[in-house]
Design a protein that fits this description.
It is a single chain. This protein is 53% helix and 15% strand. By secondary structure, the chain is an alpha+beta fold. It has 2 domains: 192 residues, no CATH class; 191 residues, no CATH class. Helix 9 runs antiparallel to helix 11.
């Protein structure tokens, strides 16, 4: 009885005897496996990049801005503007469906001056909890707190670009800037939080909301002294914003005298829904790209089966000799089965290794270079699909041609030229 080692020896000799054919066969499988892993990795790179980009706005965040009320639903004529007030913020904070709320007053027509330079970035009046709702990573110093509000300190936190413009290459903590000729002490600097080519967040200067309302209130006819430009809030249940949005719409509509069903009256951005839509899109992309990879892998498997069938035909006389000298049907079956399986396994492992190397190079060279996109990485489920497909391809590529070889009649095989 032929040993397993003898069988493997014959397999490797057969592979070595047909180097070009074996190489082309293995290349097809390696290409299919690598394509599957890289394509799915690219999709996941886009997904994680977009998720990371959205996280820079804040987690589970809904933003509402002052809006206009249409005279008739879905008609953009006779629009009546309304502004938020601290009363709106307090009413939202009292809702059981809302976890946290913060009010904002922003202006773009103020000028900031330091001892070294000047700029005209947006000034935002915010509350201490703003840094917990929005993504505001402090690079140095601190954000203002309740004691700053209680003691009415005129303090400011600079965005990264505002800090660079006002204090080029110089320390800023404890220094003074003027906002429209009023002094503010710099207590902190925010890390860069730009979103692609949009670096407006980096140009902001943050001051306490109460100070902003006192010194730089909104101007205009029928505008309250304490008016706000926006309210940001988070739902009480993470990832479930529908109840919070419905409750917030009822409160705002009731306080400003319009029907909460008038969707055009609300200016808002729901980052939770945005992330859900993006996740759905990239799940579909993963399925599509994965399907392309599986089809490519399947074509490689068909190629191996075809090559193995050709090999059986070419080696008909050899099979007849082996049977004539006592080789069993089982040994013939094993030889061709292991030949197909080894070709598939070796080429699959090469494909996995090459794709991982390629993705590692992309990670090393492109990480952080393309906003909204992360370099591809090996996704566990795609690796599992690749391995399962390899097993199926290997069995198919080895078993069918092997059974054809094993069924040959030795006399008929020896008679063939």
């Amino acid at each position: 009885m032929q040993s397993f080692a003898d069988t493997l020896g014959q397999v490797f000799r057969a592979i070595a005897a047909n180097k070009l054919r074996s190489f082309l066969t293995m290349f097809g499988i390696a290409w299919g496996v690598g394509s599957l892993l890289v394509l799915v990795g690219l999709g996941e790179g886009f997904r994680s990049g977009q998720h990371r980009q959205l996280a820079t706005f804040g987690n589970d965040l809904i933003m509402m801005w002052d809006g206009t009320i249409p005279a008739v639903a879905n008609q953009h004529t006779g629009m009546r503007p309304y502004q938020f007030t601290p009363g709106d913020e307090a009413a939202l904070r009292a809702l059981p469906d809302v976890h946290d709320v913060t009010g904002i007053l922003s202006r773009n027509d103020l000028y900031e001056v330091s001892a070294f330079a000047n700029t005209s970035g947006a000034v935002w009046g915010v509350e201490p909890n703003y840094s917990g709702i929005r993504f505001v990573p402090i690079a140095e110093g601190r954000f203002f707190d309740a004691s700053d509000i209680a003691q009415r300190r005129r303090v400011a936190v600079l965005g990264s670009k505002a800090a660079t413009l006002l204090f080029p290459g110089r320390p800023m903590l404890g220094e003074t800037i003027q906002i429209d000729d009023i002094d503010f002490a710099v207590v902190g600097r925010v890390e860069s939080i730009s979103h692609g080519n949009n670096d407006s967040d980096n140009q902001k200067v943050y001051i306490p909301l109460s100070t902003m309302q006192e010194l730089f209130a909104m101007k205009g006819d029928n505008v309250a002294q304490n008016a706000l430009t926006a309210i940001f809030y988070q739902p009480a249940m993470k990832g479930d914003e529908e109840a919070a949005k419905a409750a917030a719409h009822r409160v705002i509509a009731g306080r400003h005298g319009f029907d909460p069903g008038m969707k055009d009256a609300f200016e808002e951005w729901d980052t939770i829904e945005e992330e859900r839509i993006i996740s759905t899109i990239f799940t579909a992309m993963d399925v599509f790209l994965g399907s392309v990879g599986v089809v490519t892998l399947g074509l490689g498997a068909v190629g191996i089966i075809n090559i193995m069938l050709v090999s059986v035909t070419e080696r008909t006389r050899e099979i007849g000799v082996l049977k004539a000298i006592g080789a069993t049907r089982r040994s013939i079956l094993a030889q061709f089965f292991w030949e197909g399986l080894l070709l598939t396994a070796i080429s699959g492992l090469i494909g996995i290794a090459v794709s991982e190397g390629f993705m590692w190079v992309l990670q090393a060279t492109l990480t952080g270079k393309m906003p909204g996109w992360d370099p591809p990485r090996v996704v566990p489920w795609s690796a599992a699909v690749a391995l399962a497909s390899l097993v199926l391809c290997g069995v198919a590529a080895g078993l069918y041609p092997a059974s054809k070889a094993a069924q040959m009649d030795p006399i008929e095989a020896l008679r063939r030229e």
